[in-house]
Amino acid sequence: MATKSPTQFHNHWGAYANQAALPGVGAAQDGLEAGDQAYSIADGQTFTCTNPSFPAAWAGGGGGAPSGWQADFVDSYLYTTAVVAIEEVIGQGGFDGSRVGTGGVYFFGMMTPVFAGVGLAEMRLYDIGPIAGPPTPLVLITSLQTAVSGGPQYEEQALAVGATPGPNQIADTRRMYEVRAFVTGAPGDTLFIGGGGMDVR
Fold first, then answer.
1. What is the pLDDT of residue 127?
2. Which pLDDT does position 30 carry in this prediction?
């Protein structure tokens, strides 16, 4: 990511169809700052905002898909396996698949499971419907899994982008997502989750 002076970070606004669609160009954009970046699909370039006031000015900064654009869905969470193990909702968030552009999108998570014996820890990503609502029946997109006790362990799964959500594929529209934890193991086994979400790079 680009760095604000002296220590903060600039936003990456994702991918847009062309320069005219970049934030602040067609309409004022709250939160836009000089130094923020966005990607123009038509130009195949990442642009840097030079003037955030409407109409915003952007300067071409080179090729490549958006990098460092991340949607965090999960904060720190401790899951403890009950006698009858159940899924626990550990985070929710929105994500616009149309903004992926020519980059790749990944579901990621940081997991530290502790098993008394044999076990399997999972972070499951579900599509729960369009951002405009209403919620729809859950669609399991993917599951990050580890059978190794200890950590932390970084796990990720590459996802495709298509017309509809499905196995290892998110929709190319603005959708709501839910992350759930599940552990197959002995009662008392734990799974500490340090974070998770979707990453475009």
1. 96
2. 87
pTM of the model: 0.68
Q: How many CA atoms lie within 13 A of 46 on its CB side?
A: 22
Peptide bond preceding 167: is omega within 30 degrees of 0, i.e. cis? no
- Bridge partners, 106 (sequence order): 158, 199
Provide the token pair at 7.
Answer: 């220590």
The whole-angstrom separation of Cα 22 and Cα 198 is: 22
**Spatial separation of the C-alpha atoms in residues 33 and 51, rounded to whole Å:** 7
Give the tokens for residue 38.
């966005």
pLDDT in tens, 28-73: 998 888 888 887 777 667 788 889 999 999 887 554 444 446 677 8
Q: What is the pLDDT of residue 95?
A: 86
Return all residues near 102 (Cβ < 8 A) that are at least 6 apart.
15, 41, 44, 65
**58: nearest Cα among 18, 4, 101:** 18
Q: What domains are there in the chain, each with its CATH number?
A: 12-63 (no CATH), 69-200 (2.60.120)
